[in-house]
Amino acid sequence: MIESMNPSLIDWSRAQFAMTAMYHWIFVPLTLGLAIVIGIMETVYYKTGNDFWKCTTQFWMKLFGINFAIGIATGLILEFEFGTNWSNYSWFVGDIFGAPLAIEGIFAFFMEATFVAIMFFGWEKVSKRFHLTATWLTALGATLSSWWILVANAWMQHPVGMEFNPDTSRNEMVDFWAVATSPVAVNKFFHAVLSGWVLGGIFVVGIGCWYLLKKREKEFALASIKVGAILGLVASLFTAFTGDGSGYQIAHTQPMKLAAVEGLYKGSNGVGLVVAGALNPKKKTYDDGKDPFLFRMEIPGLLSIFAERTPNAFVPGIQDVIAGGYQQSNGVIALSANEKIERGKKAIEAFGAYRIAKNTGQKEVANTAYSVLKENMPYFGYGYIKDVKELVPNVPLNFYAFRIMVLLGIYFIVFFSAILFLVYKKDLAKMRWVHWIALLTIPLGYIAGEAGWVVAECGRQPWAILDMLPTSVGISRLDVGSVQTTFFIFLCLFTVMLIAGIGIMTRSIKKGPELINN
Amino acid sequence: MKSKLVGIWNFYRDGFRSMRVGRTLWLIILIKLFILFFVLKICFFPDFLATHSKNDDKGSYVSNELIQRALPTHSTHP
Fold first, then answer.
1. Which of A58, A205, A213, A370 is most buried, taking the most CB atoms under 10 A from its CB?
2. Residue range of the domain that includes A280
3. Are residues A374 and A451 in the same domain?
4. Distance between CA atoms of B24 and B20, rounded to whole angstroms?
5. Is the pLDDT confidence value at A4 over 80?
6. Same domain, yes or no: B25 and B59
7. What pLDDT is attached to residue A1?
């Protein structure tokens, strides 16, 4: 616990950011997914010249526009919060965040905004080729926006390419490409974007099945379902592939997160992957000696394969990460939490000594302090940790969120495969029970995406920036009441927007596509 | 050049005029942006460091925060 900081302030600040980020992630993945859907459909129109595909594209484009419009500026809120609620964090990350967000705003957003206008207004005004290009460039713009945001988030998970400047108290980017093309950023980008394509596929299939349930627009529905299901299946498979990549990276960069996600307290060689299980609610701390599970079903050796690509590899548990002393895959012996805390304290003390020495013109003292700071900077954040238990993320939250995400991901692969089989080989239009399953799968797509972000962010705790800045140190000294007030303002505002968005979208869906010769 | 600019203007003008669902969406967007920038940003989201740092020395304020949250008895000033 950080002294003199109100714990309520920490919790409310985190809750506010989490709530606004989760609302933002309601709209973003569908934008990403539907952008690809309309690109594919318009490409079919361009190649066939069949006006049916033009009308089909225009319908899904309308829904894309509704989602895009309601989602606009939900991300801006997060930037407001950076400047007010997270001022220490915002200053500390310096130009690491500034550069990607600036690029995102200037390049990707303007690209998106320009070509969105051509997409909606230009049907009878520009050539078919130009319009198709505008549609795909809109999709590219939306995707590029995601790249830079995810680069920033990936840096929080695995900070690279920077040096801390004690004169400005900021991290300064020394290697742009290390930040922009970090393996964590690349994998995270593909995993997040592809999950948006999965949601796009689920949405199109689900709404298509709604039309079949209502016995309306049969040809339109079946055509849309085919596009949605093909996109969804391909995206689901690649999402699983990149998910495996995430697991491998987490094993090497965030072993505590992996241990929490797996409920793995005591590491060993040849660790199994828990497919399903129930955690013991009586287990409160990593060292209370209680069995972590009430029951579990695991695939032997699979976690070792995911983490190290060999079935007998050692995977550290929470106790091992705390105690240290095990050999990591790079051959280096892991430091214990207490050793890291000592080094963190040295770093912060050196930082303080440096600042004083600079203020008093003691150059030699400043140089000595700077050397100590630089040597211990990788453990800077540990200097704030008072109890090693603070280093353990919420195990149940991460364990169950991960399983929700993965099990839903597997379900989506089965779902899309079944839909494709039924739509091509059977008469899907007559299978009402499948229509209902497809419709009810729509919210599951959202749940899977949000669960993934819960793992990404809550699994990183207590860190805002891994090993460098705890979440509780990043927040501003605000009055708890003001954070609570804005929390509820956002909750009301976003809920109203969401209801409005769902209402407009529902009305458009009920109205249906404007098909020629339906 | 002038005709191109006029053409672009007419393109957007005709596009906005032909909107149906889009008008409702634009109304929502404008209301939302107004609330965000003229209510929330002004009343609830000031630039914290600008208002709390002395002489706009944000670096010193943050360094003090970073140090004192770990070492409450320390200061960056002698």
1. A205
2. 260-317
3. no
4. 7
5. no
6. no
7. 36
Say how far apart CA A454 and CA A459 lie, in whole Å.
7
Lookup result for tokens 């364990």: A399
**B41 and B18 in a common domain:** yes
Domain boundary among A388, A410, A427: A388
What proportion of chain B, given as a percentage, has pLDDT over 90?
A: 8
Q: Does A125 touch chain B (CB under 8 A)?
A: yes
Q: Is A350 in the same domain as A485?
A: no
Task: Say whether B58 and A91 touch across the interface (CB within 8 A).
Answer: yes
Asked if residue A43 is part of any domain, the answer here is yes
Return residues 189-228 of A near B (CB < 8 Å): none
* Percentage of the residues of chain A whose pLDDT score is greater than 70: 98
Same-domain pairing of B55 and B36: no
What confidence score (pLDDT) does residue A119 get? Answer: 93
- CB distance B21–A62 less than 8 Å? yes
Q: Verify that A382 and A403 share a domain, yes or no.
A: no
Q: In A, residues 58-97, which contact B (CB 8 Å cutoff)?
A: 62, 65-66, 69-70, 72-73, 76-77, 80-81, 83-85, 87-88, 90-92
- pLDDT for the residue B17: 87
Q: What is the ipTM of this complex?
A: 0.86
Residue A2 pLDDT: 40
Domain membership flag for residue A516: no
Residue A409 lies in a domain: yes
Q: So what's the pLDDT on residue A247?
A: 94
DSSP letters, A413-458, are HHHHHHHHHHHHHS-GGG-HHHHHHHHHHHHHHHHHHHHHHHHHHH
The residue of chain B with its CA nearest to that of A341 is B70
Domain range for B72 is: 46-78
Number of domains in chain B: 2
Q: How far apart are CA A440 and CA A322, in angstroms?
A: 43
Of the partner residues B29, B47, B76, the one whose CB lies closest to the CB of residue A355: B76
pLDDT of A97 reads 81
Residue A281 sits in the same domain as residue A351: no
Total number of domains in chain A: 3
Q: Which residues of B touch A113 (CB under 8 A)?
A: none
What DSSP assignment string belongs to A266-303?
A: S-EESPPEEEEEEE-TT--STTS---SEEEEEEETTHH
List phi, psi (to 5°) of B76.
Answer: -90, 0
d(CA A230, CA A423): 11
A308 and A353 belong to one structural domain: no
Closest Cβ opposite residue A65 in set B14, B25, B33:
B25
Q: Does A384 touch chain B (CB under 8 A)?
A: yes
- Tell whether A138 and A238 lie within a shared domain: yes
Residues of chain B under the 70 pLDDT cut = 55-56, 74-78
Answer yes or no: do A76 and B36 touch at CB < 8 A: yes
Check B45 against A83: CB less than 8 A apart. yes
In sign, the C-alpha dihedral spanning A62, A65, A69, A74 is positive
Partner-chain residue, chosen from A3, A65, A497, that has the shortest CB–CB distance to B22: A65
Looking at residue A168, the DSSP 8-state letter turns out to be: T
Let me know if residue A327 belongs to a domain. no
Chain mean pLDDT for chain A: 93
By Cβ distance, the residue of A117, A169, A476 closest to B48 is A476
